Amino acid sequence: MKPIASLLLAIMMLAIPAVMSQDAEHWISQTKSDYYNGSYSLALDDIDQYLKINQTDTWAWSFRANLLKKMERYREAVESFDMLIALDSSHAEAYNDRALILAGGLNRDDEALASLEAALQIEPFNANIWYNKGMVLEKMERNNESLEAYRRAIDLDEDLDRAWFRQGHVLMRLGRNSEALKCFQKAAQLDPANSLYQQSLQDMGALTMNDLDADGLAANGLDANGLDMDDLAVDLQENMLDFSASSARPGR
Q1: What pLDDT, in 10s, does the model give residues 138-164?
Q2: DSSP states of 147-175 as a string?
Q3: 140: which residues sit within 8 A by CB, 6+ positions away?
Q4: What is the pLDDT of residues 232-249, one digit of tens each?
Q5: pLDDT, tens digit, 9 for 90 and up, residues 19-71
Q6: What pTM, to 2 d.p., does this model score?
Q7: What is the pLDDT at residue 1?
Q8: CA 151/CA 184 separation, integer angstroms
Q9: Is domain 1-124 given the CATH code 1.20.272.10 in the classification?
Q10: In this structure, what DSSP letter does residue 218 have?
């Protein structure tokens, strides 16, 4: 849930390929300089110049995709991930991050879901990809399937607090308040400093004490059908950055 800011791209800048021509080294150095100066358009021009020299560098395509995402140029970001996948069809992170842009930036949820399925074909035991699938399904209001995806994520990583949290909201939307309360309790136990978890736990506790079902939420200032959808959209954006940090290739 917590903002990731520029962590991904900062990490990726440390993973610059070690062996390259002098011209390529110049453009990577210029990319680094312009990026850290906040000149993202110039950094994009720089990485494009580098890719003219080394079109098969998957690191560069990943960096370009994430830079375009940061610039909110979502369609171009997806196209860069497509190039990365064409070069390396086993790149689960690329499928995953492509999906989050499709869902979180372009509202192309069916395509996002297909991209996540492709990622899971490569890494079926990746809890974070299952969590992301749950978020996309939740956005599509396919609640039972979303719950199943969140459960799979939790089975793989019992300490994945955000999966417990989002599962709680889906259960709450379905009027299964006592189950939702347990999920919020678990999320808050795993991350007690998270104010959003604590607030949801308090709200859910009050509703459970009043024995309210989903139809009674609105009377208490909560919308069962639109509950926390704004936060879900933010999660779809931020989790791409969180997960993609692993795409930087150490030692290069």
Answers
A1: 999 999 999 999 999 999 999 999 999
A2: HHHHHHHHHH-TT-HHHHHHHHHHHHHTT
A3: 109, 113
A4: 666 766 665 443 333 333
A5: 457 889 999 999 999 999 999 999 999 999 999 999 999 999 999 999 999 99
A6: 0.79
A7: 47
A8: 14
A9: no
A10: G
What DSSP designation does 14 have?
A: T
Q: Cα(85)–Cα(184) distance, rounded to whole angstroms?
A: 37
Cα–Cα distance, 80 to 6 (Å, whole number): 19
194, 217 contact by CB (below 8 A): no
DSSP for 77-114 reads HHHHHHHHHHH-TT-HHHHHHHHHHHHHTT--HHHHHH
Question: With 50 as the cut, is the pLDDT of residue 221 above it?
Answer: no
SS3 content of the chain, % helix, strand, coil (to 5): 75, 0, 25
Residues 6 or more apart whose Cβ sits within 8 Å of residue 7: 241, 245
- Between 11 and 134, whose confidence is greater? 134
Angle of the 195-209 helix axis to the 177-190 helix axis, nearest 10 = 150
**Contact, 232 vs 196, CB < 8 A?**
no
Every domain of the chain and the residues it spans: 1-124
Q: How sure is the predictor about 202, in pLDDT bands with cuts at 50, 70 and 90? A: confident
47-81: buried (b, 16+ CB within 10 Å) or exposed (e) per residue?
A: bebbbebbeebbbbbbbbbbbbbbeebbeebbbbb
Cβ-count burial 146-176 (b if 16+ within 10 Å, e if not): bbebbebbbebbeebbbbbbbbbbbbbbbeb
